[in-house]
Amino acid sequence: MERRFEILPGLSLSFSDLQFRFSRSGGPGGQNVNKVETRVEVALPIASAQVLPEQVREQLLSRLGRRLDEGGWLRVTVDESRSQYRNRELAVERLAMILRNALRPRKKRKATRPTVASRREKARQKKLHGEKKRRRASSHSPEDE
Predict the structure, then answer these.
(1) Sign of CA pseudo-dihedral 15, 106, 71, 46
(2) pTM of the full predicted structure?
(3) 10 Å Cβ neighbour count for 88?
(4) Alpha-carbon gap, residue 63 to 65, rounded angstroms
(5) Taking the mean position of all CA atoms in its chain, how far away is CA 84?
(6) CA angle, corner 85, sides to 82 and 88, nearest 5?
(7) Which residues are within 8 A (CB) of 18 and not within 5 positions of it... i.e. 6 or more apart?
(8) Which residues have a Cβ under 8 Å from the Cβ of 129 and sit 6 or more positions away?
(9) Could you report the per-residue pLDDT of 16-34, keeping only the tens digit for each?
(10) How confident is the model over 52-92, as pLDDT tens digits?
(11) CA separation for the pair 77, 67 (Å, rounded)
(12) 37: closest CA among 45, 48, 47, 29?
C-alpha cells in the first residue's frame, strides 16, 4: 500500500508523486555529518502534476509564484535532525503546510472609512507642517546671503 499525506479533506498526495533528494548536512555533527546524507529536499512539480485537479493547480501556481523555480517545482529542504527519516517526515509536513496555506480561502477586504477624529488629526498635522515650512521660507530670504 502506498503512503499518502493529506493536504485538505478530499485532497491527498502520494509519496510517489514527490521527488526526494538527499545530501550531506552542513554544520557540527562530528563524523556523522561527513558520511551520512541526512539533508532532505522534497520537490513537487506543481506545473505538471497530473494528480492535482486543474483548478487547484491554477490556484497553487498563482499563489506560490515566487516560491516555485523556473520549471514550476515547489522545493522544501530540511536538515534539522540527524536522522534522514525524521528530516524526510518534516519536509513532507512543511510541503503540505505550504500547500494548505496556499489553498486556504482568502478573506475579502471590507472597505472602511477613516473616523472623524482621524480626519481632524490628519488635517491638524498638515496645518502644522505647512506652518513650519512657511516659517522656514520667511526666515531664509535672498537678502541674508
Answers:
(1) positive
(2) 0.67
(3) 19
(4) 6
(5) 25
(6) 100
(7) 42, 43, 44, 92, 95
(8) none
(9) 888 888 888 776 666 666 6
(10) 888 888 888 888 888 888 888 889 999 888 888 899 899 99
(11) 13
(12) 29
Which of 38, 37, 46, 39 is closest to 18 using CA atoms? 46
4-103, what's its fold?
A: Double Stranded RNA Binding Domain (3.30.160)
Q: Which three cell numbers stand for residue 79?
A: 536538515
Listing DSSP states for the chain in one string gives ---EEEEETTEEEEGGGSEEEEE---SS-THHHHH---EEEEEEETTT-TTS-HHHHHHHHHHSGGGB-TTSEEEEEE--SS-HHHHHHHHHHHHHHHHHHHHSPPPPPPP----HHHHHHHHHHHHHHHHHHHHHHHHS-GGG-
Identify whether the C-beta of residue 77 lies closer than 8 Å to the C-beta of residue 111. Answer: no
Q: Which residue has the higher pLDDT, 28 or 97?
A: 97
